[in-house]
């Protein structure tokens, strides 16, 4: 059974976001059922529904389905789980290093990432009113 770090790593690679709230919601049964928590929310349909409800955008359902598929693959292939655990741990280390590096550069050089000014699009009614 892969850790939440692996689920977040997989979602980040697949969808561009970690979807941690989706993975926590799908595995909520662990609090009561322990290692048998896969009897709850671990069918593809249930995982899609939970992900769609909990996720903030339209891809949360697909992240839930990815969660279930990753669980199944890692149960069948323990060496895959070990490899993914290693990859996810290294990714977390790299992300932590980059955050610290960025923070240090801001302290030393006063460099901050520029934020673009948000441009509000004027809708057609605005043009008619002007």
Fold and architecture overview:
The chain is mainly alpha-helical and 130 residues long. It has one domain (4-111). Helices cover 68% and strands 0% of the residues. The longest helix is centred in the last third of the chain and has 32 residues, at 78-109. The radius of gyration is 20 Å and the shape is globular.
What order do the helices and strands come in, and which of them pair?
Blueprint (H helix, E strand, L loop, with lengths): L3 H12 L4 H7 L3 H4 L10 H11 L5 H17 L1 H32 L14 H6 L1
TL;DR of this structure?
With 130 residues, the chain is mostly helical. It is built from seven helices and no strands.
- What is the makeup of the main sheet? none
Mean pLDDT across residues: 87
Secondary-structure-derived class: mainly alpha
**Element pattern in H and E:** HHHHHHH
Overall domain count: 1
- Low-confidence parts: 123-130
Q: Quick one: how many beta strands? A: 0
Cα(first) to Cα(last) distance is 60 Å
Give the overall silhouette.
globular
User: Level of helix content?
Assistant: 55-70%
Q: Which features would summarize this protein structure in a list?
A:
130 residues, mainly alpha, 0% strand, globular, disordered C terminus
């Amino acid at each position: 059974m892969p850790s939440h770090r692996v689920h977040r790593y997989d979602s980040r690679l697949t969808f561009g976001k970690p979807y941690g709230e989706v993975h926590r919601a799908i595995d909520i049964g662990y609090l009561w059922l322990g290692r048998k928590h896969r009897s709850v929310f671990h069918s593809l349909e249930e995982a899609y529904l939970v992900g769609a409800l909990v996720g903030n955008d339209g891809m949360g359902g697909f992240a839930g389905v990815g969660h279930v598929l990753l669980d199944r693959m890692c149960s069948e292939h323990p060496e895959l789980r070990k490899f993914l655990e290693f990859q996810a741990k290294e990714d977390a280390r790299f992300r932590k290093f980059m955050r610290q590096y960025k923070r240090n550069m801001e302290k030393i050089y006063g460099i901050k990432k520029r934020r673009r000014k948000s441009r509000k699009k004027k809708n057609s009614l605005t043009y008619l009113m002007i």
